[in-house]
Amino acid sequence: MKADRPLRSRAWLLQVAAAYAGLTLVGRFANAQTTPAAALTEEEQLERDFTDPLSTLPQLTVRDSYTPANYGPCTPPTPCVRDGETNQVIVRPLIPRVPPNTLLPFMQLIMPTFALVTVPNSRGGTRTEFGDLPLFDLAVLPWPDKNRTGFLVGAGPTFVFPTATSKSAGQGAWQAGPALGVIYAGIPGLLVGFVAQNPVSFAYTSPDRPPQNTLEIQPVLALHLWEK
Question: What distance in Å separates the CA atoms of residue 83 and residue 129, rounded to the nearest whole number?
């Protein structure tokens, strides 16, 4: 496998920590999602904000994804790499900005993603590089009324900056597109929604880089199972 060829992984993936995707279990039951904010204790408010990706609570998510084997195209005379191990460490802070410290009269949620990627090389072994830098900036809209409908909607742009230090660790394309986040908290004890992004490439770091158009949908599910 050439070092500058993107990997096509079919292996199972071990998730050490995940960012509000999949199933989140927290120890507060039912009415934490629907109780008026004024009636919530400080602990209840913190639990509700932590499970809500459109909250104003600053957060830091660290995730490690390990792939024990990779399978990719074989181009003679380069040998096929069938057991090359890869690893990706992701650090993702959530930076809220509340009016009047925002460009628009809405609450803004800024989330960059920093990646440290370990990839195999054509001579055997592995090397670690910095990956591309995705970032989205969502404005939390004041409509529909969250207290009346249970819905919270955020919309804004998403970007991908080609900051990878190796050709094989990134896509080599400047990308921009729309982002949308929708959360529903109208059912006691349940929070569901998604965050969707669609960055599209418009400039490239080299002429041989292919166009990019990626639709990423990240589900959100938080279920409160029991009461302390």
Answer: 19
Query: What are the phi and psi torsion angles at 36 (to 5°)?
Result: -55, 145
- Chain position carrying tokens 């400080």: 42
How far apart are alpha carbons 141 and 78 in whole angstroms? 52
φ and ψ at residue 139, rounded to 5 degrees: -100, 120
The token pair at 122 is: 């054509």
User: Count of domains in the chain?
Assistant: 1
Residues 6+ apart with CB under 8 A from 200: 175, 176, 177, 212, 213
pLDDT of residue 35: 43
Mean pLDDT by 10 residues, the chain (228 residues): 38 35 34 42 62 75 85 58 76 88 84 90 80 95 86 96 92 97 88 95 95 95 74
Structure token digits, residue 200 = 């599209």
Domain annotation covers residue 5 = no
Tokens of 37: 């904010």
Residue numbers of the domain that contains 29 = 14-224
